[in-house]
Amino acid sequence: MLQGSSVFGYERPLLIRVSFSTCVLATVCLPLLGLITCVLISSTFHFEDSTGTHCQVPNYLPSISASISLSPECHIWRFCIGLHSAPRFLLAFTYFKFYRTRFASKFPESSLCSLTCLNLTFSILENLSLLLLTYVSSSETFFVHKEGFLLFIVSSIIHMMITCRLWKAIKKYSLNPEDAKSHHWKVRFLFFNVSCCVFAGFFYWKHNMYCESGSYTFFALFEYLVVFSNMAFHLTAVWDFKTREVMVISSSEDKDF
């Protein structure tokens, strides 16, 4: 339904109006459902190809890289990630503006304003590296895919750490219980994510060093948990912008001649 909306003093028609929570949920569900679909298809129809490794030992779960490099799985994953990337950039800049507004008027926490720029930088790097490892599969150029994955892990962890620091300051001054809950779960998802990264790295090293049966399966399992905890961390934006809305407004203007 079109509605009139006053923007910068002009009456413009409102084309789309969606709650920010709905936008966040849809953005997170795209990669979540895409990943689950790819893993299920790989496990059902391409089990040998997706679970095979150079060690030639039994493996029972496909890694994420393997499950998104086959067809049609790669097309499903690329569609979901490509579609979700634009809202991710929008969310990054929304958080940047939100932080700058909150900390600009809070002394002595005004020093945290510099962290907001770093937070935006690593949020953008996280999204770009995800696009890189998505559109350059491990079966095409393994080195580029591997570096993209490492960049994604590092940038996402740093982004989450900075975000938790910023929300610690926000919780200090806020009387809103939603802010305290958001910080509470952000910290827990961060620790869970880092723990899963450590376990995934350990089993990956163990698999390459000793070629033990089951090591790569545990690596794949913890790799899933790394990605799921990352999604859960971003899902906390539902609490942060609970009352906000995303609006698309026509740019056309009637001019008097």
From TrEMBL:
InterPro entries: CWH43_N (IPR019402), PGAP2 (IPR039545). The keyword Membrane applies. Keywords: Golgi apparatus, GPI-anchor biosynthesis, Membrane, Transmembrane, Transmembrane helix. Its main location: Golgi. One of its GO terms (cellular component) is endoplasmic reticulum membrane. GO terms for biological process: GPI anchor biosynthetic process. It is found in: Golgi apparatus membrane. The chain crosses the membrane at residues 20-42, 117-136, 148-167, 187-205, 217-239. Residues 21-243 form the CWH43-like N-terminal domain. It is a multi-pass membrane protein. Involved in the fatty acid remodeling steps of GPI-anchor maturation where the unsaturated acyl chain at sn-2 of inositol phosphate is replaced by a saturated stearoyl chain. May catalyze the second step of the fatty acid remodeling, by reacylating a lyso-GPI intermediate at sn-2 of inositol phosphate by a saturated chain. The fatty acid remodeling steps is critical for the integration of GPI-APs into lipid rafts. Belongs to the PGAP2 family. This is Acyltransferase PGAP2.
